Amino acid sequence: MEIDTIQWFPGHMVKARKMVQENLKLVDIVVELLDARIPLSSRNPDIDAILEKKPRIVVLNKADLADVSQTEQWSRWFHERRGLQCIALDSQHGNGIGKLIGLGQELAVQINNKLAAKGRKPRAVRMMMVGIPNVGKSSLINKLAGKGYTRTGDRPGLTRGKQWIRVGKGLELLDTPGILWPKFEDPEVGFRLAATGAIKDEIINIEQVAMKLVNYLNATEQDALKDRYKLGEVDADPYEILRAIGARRGCLVSGGNVDIFKAAVIVLNEFRGGKLGRFTLDRIERDA
Ligand SMILES: Nc1nc2c(ncn2[C@@H]2O[C@H](COP(=O)(O)OP(=O)(O)O)[C@@H](O)[C@H]2O)c(=O)[nH]1
Ligand SMILES: [Mg+2]
After folding, report:
1. Which of 25, 87, 159, 256 has the most crowded CB, counting CB atoms within 10 A?
2. What residues line ligand 1, using a CB cutoff of 6 Å?
3. Per-residue pLDDT for 114 more than 50?
4. pLDDT tens digits for 198-217?
5. 55 and 118 share a domain?
6. CATH number, domain at 77?
7. 3: CA distance to ligand 2 center in Å?
8. How many CB atoms lie within 10 A of CB 139?
């Protein structure tokens, strides 16, 4: 079972990592799922040590929410600077899924050629997915599986073994993804994770994150803020920006004051849903 409600305690992290390492032994290829809006901040800092030399495909998911040109540049960066195959896709709508299956099958052929060279028979090649919470692991598995998908391997009800989903000729995917944790130390990274919805709202200060977000948008994409919230002049103070947004949206408390918390929730939700535009918070020119 996937631990969706994972909390960020050291014990859980160790357990999750152990699970990944156990399953790693069963697969030939790992799909490292990242958020295209934060390709570095959504990476587990120990990922290379965890995966070692296992063949890997990096997927920049939620590409529909990220800046197109930045996504292209990040894809190139992973390929040229990190030597990793990289594909951008959108697991919600399924765009780009075919590319991932194609690349998986290419790798499967290579792996089977190596086996053949050692005199071994060809076999199905197995993949697993790893990524931080909310990056879209379940969505991608569902899209790869399709409707009425074929599970191979152990039959449910008979054993409690692993379930494998057939995703293409000679290619199978473990139906349980590995959960990894993101980086934590850098507060800027924390902000980007919170703004994109990778960290549960219950454990973040929503007003603070929203203020930092409107501050960022005001500095970099002021028109997006102005257009979305029909603001005239935008105040330099992020608290005042939230207040103006709240007033526009009728977030009022008794006495006629603006409910800043409500305004913060609106801005965060709309940003996460792409309503303010497509944004990449990890910038290739600054962060790579
Ligand atoms: N816009 C967009 N939303 C996505 C995409 N992939 C996943 N999501 C959404 O992100 C949220 C988390 O996805 P989920 O698959 O549950 O993530 P998991 O925790 O890694 O299994 C859900 O609301 C999904 O609908 C994507 O490519 N684009
Ligand atoms: Mg999930």
Report:
1. 87
2. 61-62, 64-65, 90-92, 131, 133-139
3. yes
4. 987 877 899 999 999 999 99
5. yes
6. 3.40.50.300
7. 8
8. 18
DSSP state of 159: B
| Closest C-alpha to ligand 1, atom 25 | 92
Indicate the top mutation candidate among 44, 100, 134 to test ligand 1's pocket, ranked by most ligand atoms within 8 A of CB: 134
Nearest CA to ligand 1 atom 4: 92
Q: Please report the atom of ligand 1 found closest to the CA of residue 142.
A: 15
Q: 190-220: string of b/e by CB count within 10 Å (b at 16+)?
A: bbbbbbbbbbeeeebebbebbbbbbbbbbee
Q: Residue 185: name the closest of 284, 7, 41, 15 by CA.
A: 41
What the block records as the tokens of 203 is 């454990």
Range of the domain at 216: 205-287
In a domain, 185, yes or no: no
CA of 62 to the centre of ligand 1 (A): 7
Task: State the distance from the centre of ligand 2 to the C-alpha of 237, rounded, in angstroms.
Answer: 37
Distance 191 CA to ligand 1 centre (A): 19
* Backbone torsion region of residue 197, taken as left when φ is above 0, otherwise alpha when ψ lies between -120 and 50, otherwise beta: left
pLDDT in tens, 221-279: 999 999 999 999 999 999 999 999 999 999 999 888 999 999 999 999 999 999 999 99
Question: How many domains in the chain?
Answer: 2
238 or 149, which is more confident? 238
